[in-house]
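Example 316, ligand 2-phosphoglycolic acid.
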Amino acid sequence: MQATLHQLKVFETVARYGSFTKAAEALYITQPTVSSQIKQLAGTVGLPLFEQIGKQLYLTEAGQELLTTCREVFEQLDNFDMKVSDLKGTKQGCLRLGAITTAKYFVPRLLGSFCQHYPTIDISLQVTNHQNLTQRMLENKDDLYVLSQRPQDVELWSQAFLENPLVVVARSDHPLAGKRNIAIARLNGEPFIMRESGSGTRQAVEELFEQQGVSVKVRLELGSNEAIKHAIAGGLGISVLSRHSLIPSMSSGELTVLDVEHFPIPRQWYVAYLGGKQLSPIAETFLQHLLVESAKYSAEQPEFLHDYTALSRKRA
Ligand code: PGA
């Protein structure tokens, strides 16, 4: 195939934006140039790459195949660039990370110290729930992932690096606050704030409640751990959250952890990448940084990670 790299770049940009005009803007070229490059590329391939239905631009089957190939080619070229700069003794390039919602309480700190060592790299961190993260994996969008439930249908290399326990959180004036060994059945009928479907937290909670025959009264469904904390503080009900999401709230004293049997639900954060993926030197370096720094953090925070109800007892 006689396509030029420039044509492939134009094609990938049109596919990403779903628009010739936006691709032209992003590439600082004119819209007729974009159209003519795509036309020539389609001529080389021998099949149309896009079809326009109404105002919407769709990739044809040949277009889909070409897009997958393009992304692989660009990734290899990026890796080559990074390897060259590595050989020259400098670390440059882009680090793409995908992380579940609770990891946002930890991963950005690591990025801070990492960037001090490698100030010239660009970083993208996408924070989303498990379902969306699995989709990103299927599209090979990131170098590394941080998650707590490994999807069954994606082949991954993964390593656990820190505990991520899920605890029952209530407002500090909740009648069960400060009580020890609360039977899980006491949660029956409790007003409850649930994460959205697609959330790994929600799945873990639903599995435990089903096993234990607990039926809470779901008052509200929210897609953000922070919004759930505010809803608890606002008196809408209790919820189950990662212990990590409580760090910033500890000082305010508005929220408390309930000592309910079968909690915390034990979970771990894993760092992962797609099986068969060739990690870039930057991704490899960040992976080592994450493993070393999380081991230090775990050693420095024994109370936080292992004494889940310390927060409630201090106040009781
Ligand atoms: P979630 O995952 O955002 O999909 O609920 C969070 C977690 O498992 O810690």
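Summary: Residues 176 and 258 are 7 Å apart (CA to CA).
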